[in-house]
């Protein structure tokens, strides 16, 4: 019988696991939030991932459960584990990707380089942190943020009062995370795959470009990353993967500071936007690698197949018509561009697809990826 992987969540990350699953003959099943989602092609169930019964019923028919996102509650994960179901990444690892305060505390224990940070529960504490950090800081909601939602640069203690008020309403109480405003030259991302039995493989460190808090472009490998930088980034990724006992794909978002240090920004324990280049630019894509890792199969070679790969996100999509209306023009003009779409309706700012281009000259590759992606927005 085919190996069966169950993915909780029907977004584009689940969708992009479908192609490698078909190639390997893995029976991929998705628990989607609703009909018509990105991964609906593989959806065998539709239901609420916060409901233990729903997730358990889905999980009973697969060999391993994994995720499209980090939002499945710990109580639901515990139900699965108690029922003897293999869950990768496991609840103990996922905690660190679910809550940025829990993550910061654990990374500190592991001795990982990171921005100065504190947990703050009111405007006075936030102001005290600002006073110690040249009057500027980044406040983050510890849970549920993505694409820059839940991240705010502040210069006075009262600028997060709305978030403190929301926390006060939450019965569990809690704190906000505040971090020093890092003076970075660029952002990088390090991906590592880890099997339950312990083997790890690191991808080359990549450069990510965020616009308005959303990933816009990725260059793989990060320019000027040979030697020390590549080694330091890989070491950080592997230390975190092992220290947190991550299983599956881990992405570590990093800042490269003006004084050439690497600081950990945040973690994701699933395939990640910074690794989409690997679909067309690496021997083993992050989506295949994730399947191998959660099935505890030998990991594939993460090496690039070309000197450079550039990934450009399609954000928003066309304001009139659909993405495939633009195929003819884009494909005619850019036969070397690999176009990936997520089956999502265009909406301002929404990630609806991406374009990968690989080749030997970074300027040419970047130009072609941007030009091809530009056919899909206006
Ligand atoms: N401490 C910081 N200093 C400077 N910029 C930051 C800091 N934290 C986050 N940012 C910026 O905000 C973006 C989003 O923050 P992040 O914590 O990664 O949130 P999200 O979960 O939305 O991706 C980062 O990619 C970076 O550009
Ligand atoms: Mg981020």
Automatic annotation (TrEMBL):
Provide the alphabetized UniProt keywords. ATP-binding, Ligase, Nucleotide-binding, Purine biosynthesis
SUPFAM superfamilies named in the record: Glutathione synthetase ATP-binding domain-like, PreATP-grasp domain, Rudiment single hybrid motif
Q: Name one Pfam family in it.
A: RS_preATP-grasp-like
The pathway this protein participates in, as annotated, is: Purine metabolism; IMP biosynthesis via de novo pathway; 5-amino-1-(5-phospho-D-ribosyl)imidazole-4-carboxylate from 5-amino-1-(5-phospho-D-ribosyl)imidazole (N5-CAIR route): step 1/2
Q: Name one GO molecular function term.
A: 5-(carboxyamino)imidazole ribonucleotide synthase activity
Q: What does it catalyze?
A: 5-amino-1-(5-phospho-beta-D-ribosyl)imidazole + hydrogencarbonate + ATP = 5-carboxyamino-1-(5-phospho-D-ribosyl)imidazole + ADP + phosphate + 2 H(+)
Specify the ATP-grasp domain's residue ranges.
Answer: 104-295
Q: Where do the annotations place ATP binding?
A: 100, 140, 179-182, 187, 265-266
Task: Return the EC number.
Answer: 6.3.4.18
Does the record's keyword annotation contain Chaperone?
A: no
* InterPro entries xrefs: ATP-grasp, ATP-grasp_carboxylate-amine, ATP_grasp_subdomain_1, PreATP-grasp_dom_sf, PurK, PurK_C, PurT/PurK_preATP-grasp, Rudment_hybrid_motif
Superkingdom, taxonomy of origin: Bacteria
In the record, the note on similarity to other proteins reads: Belongs to the PurK/PurT family.
HAMAP family the record matches? PurK (MF_01928)
Under the subunit heading, UniProt states: Homodimer.
Q: List the PANTHER family hit by this protein, alphabetically.
A: PHOSPHORIBOSYLAMINOIMIDAZOLE CARBOXYLASE, PURINE BIOSYNTHESIS PROTEIN 6/7, PUR6/7
According to its UniProt entry, the function of this protein is described as: Catalyzes the ATP-dependent conversion of 5-aminoimidazole ribonucleotide (AIR) and HCO(3)- to N5-carboxyaminoimidazole ribonucleotide (N5-CAIR). Catalyzes the ATP-dependent conversion of 5-aminoimidazole ribonucleotide (AIR) and HCO(3)(-) to N5-carboxyaminoimidazole ribonucleotide (N5-CAIR).
Q: Under which name does UniProt file this protein? A: N5-carboxyaminoimidazole ribonucleotide synthase
Q: Which organism is it from?
A: Microbacterium salsuginis
- Name of the gene: purK
């Amino acid at each position: 019988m085919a190996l069966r992987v169950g993915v909780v969540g029907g977004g584009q990350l689940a969708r992009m696991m479908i192609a490698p699953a078909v190639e390997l003959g893995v029976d991929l099943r998705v628990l989607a939030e609703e009909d018509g989602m990105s991964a609906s092609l593989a959806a065998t169930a539709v239901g609420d991932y916060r409901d233990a019964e729903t997730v358990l019923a889905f999980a009973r028919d697969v060999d391993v459960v994994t995720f499209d996102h980090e939002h499945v509650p710990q109580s639901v994960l515990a139900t699965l584990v108690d029922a003897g179901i293999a869950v990768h990444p496991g609840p103990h690892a996922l905690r660190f990707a679910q809550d940025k305060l829990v993550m910061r505390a654990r990374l500190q224990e592991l001795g990982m380089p990171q921005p100065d940070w504190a947990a703050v529960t009111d405007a006075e504490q936030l102001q005290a942190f600002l006073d110690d950090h040249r009057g500027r800081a980044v406040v983050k909601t510890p849970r549920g943020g993505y694409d820059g939602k839940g991240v705010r640069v502040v210069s006075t203690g009262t600028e997060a009062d709305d978030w403190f008020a929301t926390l006060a309403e939450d019965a569990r109480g809690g704190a906000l995370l505040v971090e020093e405003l890092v003076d970075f030259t660029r952002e990088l991302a390090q991906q590592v795959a880890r099997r339950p039995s312990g083997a790890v493989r690191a991808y080359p460190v990549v450069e990510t470009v965020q616009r308005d808090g959303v990933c816009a472009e990725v260059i793989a490998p990060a320019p000027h990353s040979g030697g020390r930088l590549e080694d330091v980034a890989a070491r950080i990724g592997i230390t975190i993967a092992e220290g947190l006992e991550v299983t599956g794909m881990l992405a570590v978002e990093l800042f490269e500071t003006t004084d050439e240090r690497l600081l950990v920004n945040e973690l994701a324990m699933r395939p990640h936007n910074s690794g989409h280049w690997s679909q067309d630019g690496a021997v083993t894509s992050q989506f295949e690698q994730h399947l191998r890792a959660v099935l505890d199969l030998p990991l594939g070679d993460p090496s690039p197949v070309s000197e450079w790969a550039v990934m450009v996100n399609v954000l928003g999509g066309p304001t009139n018509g659909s993405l495939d209306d633009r195929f003819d023009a884009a494909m005619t003009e850019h036969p070397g561009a690999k176009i990936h779409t997520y089956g999502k309706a265009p909406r301002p700012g929404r990630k609806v697809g991406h374009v990968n281009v690989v080749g030997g000259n970074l300027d040419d590759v970047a130009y072609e990826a941007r030009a091809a992606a530009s056919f899909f927005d206006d």
